[in-house]
Design brief:
Layout lengths: L1 H12 L5 H16 L6 E4 L6 H17 L5 E3 L6 H8 L7 E6 L1 H11 L11 E11 L1 E5 L7 H10 L5 E4 L5 H13 L4 E4 L3 H10 L4 E4 L1 H9 L3 E6 L25 E9 L4 H15 L2 H9 L7 E2 H22 L4
Parallel strand pairs: 1-2, 1-3, 6-7, 6-8
Antiparallel strand pairs: 3-10, 4-10, 4-11, 5-8, 5-9
Length: 333
């Protein structure tokens, strides 16, 4: 309060002294007009090959064409995504370090709280920029697996509790939460084998190290097309594009089993609003790029673009639902 009176007095005595107060705003506007002034790093908090990586690379290439500056994709995997997420949370809020995040962004801090650990980061350390894709996950198994339908998988799992293994991108990752939802609804005891990202989790399935995986359509599609994997069910409210023959869990009598693996772009909190808007303007241009659209559609992840309040509302609602799911899962041994 005393400082407010002092500033008011200075403004009355010497109006010219107020000029430095507005100077930072002018500097921020100038910075936004020049943005990006150098390479923009797009961090993926997982190893190559997972859903975030599948989306990030064509988006980064489209932004490079628009901005005429490098947009390298940097994979900072580990701790189910927490390491890369925390790196961006602490980055300079100038728009030159971005995060292509998955829905696990809100899950991991809640998991830390379950164990009484201080979270590696919190969601309020990020500014939501735009949603790029939102795909239902798929239950996939090897093509030589004995299960041709979801019913056969469930029946076998009930006969052999704790013996059917599935991989994930780490404890409380999107791939883990989706499978935990299904296992709980079906009354199954499946053996969870966490990896350091969706790419290694897929490799484990392809090699036969594990027997099942909840995967985004993008990473699964080429292996299904090549006859290496079989999709048994879909976590969406409707059948997934490109997988029209695959039934949803809802169709199969599991009305609560619905899950989407989305990819969205975030900047560190405190990034100037003008820079955020320039980012969104570039992304709107990018998602209209036929090359980007073809790349994501070929990967099985068609664009579902939302920004501003629409994305913020989506992020809040989805995060609340996933946090409830993590609380139901509880601690993982």
């Amino acid at each position: 309060m005393r400082r407010r009176h002092l500033l008011r007095g200075l403004a009355t005595i010497a109006p010219v002294a107020a000029a430095p107060v507005v100077a930072p705003r002018r500097a921020a506007a100038q910075d936004a007009a020049a943005y990006p002034s150098r390479a923009v790093t797009m961090v993926v908090a997982f190893p190559p090959g997972g859903q975030a990586d599948v989306v990030a690379r064509p988006v980064a290439a489209a932004l490079e064409r628009i901005w005429r500056v490098p947009v390298p994709v940097v994979n900072r995997g580990g701790a189910g995504g927490a390491i890369g997420n925390a790196f961006v949370a602490r980055a300079a809020p100038d728009g030159h370090t971005l995060l292509m995040a998955l829905s696990s962004l809100a899950v991991l801090p809640e998991a830390d709280r379950l164990y009484g650990r201080p979270p590696a980061y919190t969601v309020d350390q990020f500014a939501p920029i735009a949603l790029i894709t939102a795909d239902p996950t798929l239950l996939v198994v090897r093509a030589d697996a004995p299960w041709r339908t979801l019913e056969e998988f469930v029946e076998d799992a009930k006969r052999r509790p704790g013996q059917i293994t599935y991989s994930s991108a780490g404890n409380y990752s999107t791939l883990h939460v989706a499978m935990a939802m299904f296992a709980s609804a079906a009354g199954l005891d499946l053996l969870h084998v966490p990896y350091q990202g969706g790419g290694p989790a897929m490799t484990a399935l392809l090699s036969g190290t594990v027997q099942a995986l909840s995967s985004g359509p993008g990473p699964a599609l080429p292996h299904v097309r090549e006859g290496k994997l079989r999709a048994l069910a879909c976590w969406g409210a409707r059948r997934a594009p490109g997988f029209e023959e695959v039934p949803t869990f809802i169709e199969k009598g599991y009305p609560e089993v619905e899950f989407y693996i989305w990819a969205g772009l975030f900047a560190p909190a405190g990034t100037p609003a003008a820079v955020q808007e320039r980012l969104r303007a570039a992304l709107r241009q990018a998602v209209a790029d036929p090359e980007l659209r073809r790349a994501l559609e070929a990967a099985g992840s068609p664009i579902d673009y939302r920004d501003g309040e629409a994305f913020e509302r989506f992020f809040r609602e989805d995060s609340a639902r996933l946090i409830r799911a993590v609380q139901r899962i509880g601690k993982v041994d």
